[in-house]
Amino acid sequence: MKRAFQFTILAGFLMSLTACEDWLLEPSPGLTRLEDFYSVGKTAIQNTNAAYVPLMWEFQSTYFPEWFIGDVVSDDALKGGQSIGDMADVYDMENFKTNSNNGFLLDFYRAQWQGIARCNLPLQEIAKMTPDSVMTERVQQRLLGELHFLRALYYFRLVRVFGGVPKVTEPIVSSANWQQTRASVQDIYSLIISDLEAANRGLWKKSEYSADELGRATKGAAQAMLLKAHLYTKNYADAKRWGDSIMASNEYTLVSNYADNFTLAGENGPESVFEIQFMEDPTSDYGEGYGFTRGTFTVILTRSRSSKLGGGWGFNKPTKNLYNSYEAGDPRRDATIFNPSDADIETPEQEIYLGSRYLNRKYAMMNDDKSYYTLSHPTRGPINTKVIRYADVLLMYAEAACELNQLTAAKNALEQVRSRARGTAAILPAFPYGSYADNQADLRKAIRHERRVELAMEGHRWFDLTRWGIAKETMDAYKSGESAEAQQHMAAFIKGTHELFPIPSKEIDLNPMQQNP
Questions:
Q1: Domain that holds residue 359
Q2: Domain count, the chain
Q3: How confident is the model at residue 395 (pLDDT cuts 50, 70, 90)?
């Protein structure tokens, strides 16, 4: 199902490259007649497809999947790899030693801006087009909705890593407009919410897409992102309102088996709200970087370095702190974390990283018998990245309801997630459980615990800690319980500084901006 949509994404990307090359042949920059290019509906669809492509990018001068921030910088994972020098930029990030010349952050930053640029031009031009047999008026509104959604997502990925960034909503066609002032965090979130509201008006429900179009942004995806954006800005009433809307749509359900979310067969399934689409790609992009593969590097990056267990690169290693945070019998732990035996480990000095032997199982494509899915290319995996699952929606909704002191609604949403994990076993009791009392403060703690174990190793944890304002106390407590070997590498966390990362120095050279503290 996703294959057809991904080929149209690639076609749109290639057409956008061809168009750019044509423009470069014009005698004077800026004189190309855009109305000649944006003249048929097929062009509008292909340009919209091209706007999805930067979401797939994970490699340029280094590897930069977002989970290197969301997981590794948090208490959920250690960097891993062959040694502390393997992916040295991420070593600096996880130990709060990041400098503004960090290559990971530069590649990540630029990829999001490529995405924003690919949204701004078609947003301007598609709105002017006359519908035709390929792009009906309804399709036209959907395309504009997709572009608003994607621009919001790219800005969201920027603002929670760097804080305020330039606010660019139109194509930059002149060098005179290249330098842009840095907008505030509040201004960027206002743009994100405005874009998502526009997306919600134009997008279709997931059930209205044909099977070969699954993977496109949907009305539910826009509403889920509105729920999330309002949580980040602590507007809990609007967050809950959007949560009510997506839940009332009946477009999404939890799959009965938690682990099915992380299989090829489970992609774009009933729990999927939005996924970054990847597919088999037997070609190599060595030395090429951005945009030259349709497969994900996450599979090979997170597989064990042991040839017995897939022969991967061993990054994103779960911590003992995360492993021990699961309640007794919680099946999500073993679906998320693989604990290799001594017999599974060939070279301990390369496979045990600062005391952690654990492996991230969610995206490694490991079978129950410890065998691995065979990749068509040694470094490309076909599995999608889950940006938003319905379980995430339920837990965000529970959080918003809890903060509004609507505790019954919060408990009901929390219980749906715990009930799925519990299955028919006598485990994971409904709230209140364990040491939690039946009050708002303890319900808040229970929801935060549930987000950690339900969404572990999916790139959420660091961003949750920072938006909750508890990064310092959490990371200090985590550091005190880590191995002595790991503690030697960790710098002290400075509250008010380390929640954000520095704007890349090369970008400040091009566009002078105030640096983060």
A1: 298-383
A2: 1
A3: very high
| pLDDT score, position 149 | 98
Rounded Cα–Cα distance for residues 418 and 395 (Å): 10
Report yes or no on 370 lying in a domain.
yes
380, 295 Cβ separation under 8 angstroms: yes
- 3-state SS, one letter per residue, for 125-163: HHCCCCCCCCCCHHHHHHHHHHHHHHHHHHHHHHHHHHC
DSSP conformation class of 260:
G
Claim: this prediction has a pTM higher than 0.90: yes
Does the residue 362 lie in any domain?
A: yes
Q: Tell me if 195 sits within 8 A of 152, measured CB to CB.
A: yes
Count CB neighbours of 344 within 10 A: 16
Residues 6+ apart with CB under 8 A from 317: 77, 78, 79, 80, 353, 356, 357, 358, 359, 360
Residue 314 domain-assigned (yes or no): yes
- Statement: residue 18 has pLDDT above 50: no
- Which two three-digit tokens encode residue 78? 């250690």
Angstrom distance (rounded) from CA 23 to CA 392: 43
Sign, CA torsion 201/205/208/212? positive
pLDDT at residue 23 tops 90: no
Identity of the amino acid at 181: T
> DSSP letters along 181-235, please?
PBPPHHHHHHHHHHHHHHHHHHPPPGGGS-GGGBTB--HHHHHHHHHHHHHHTT-
Residue holding tokens 């400040």?
508
Q: Is 514 exposed, middle or buried (0-12, 13-18, 19+ CB in 10 A)?
A: exposed
Q: Could you give the residue ranges of the DSSP H alpha helices within 291-426?
A: 298-302, 320-323, 331-336, 348-351, 390-403, 407-422
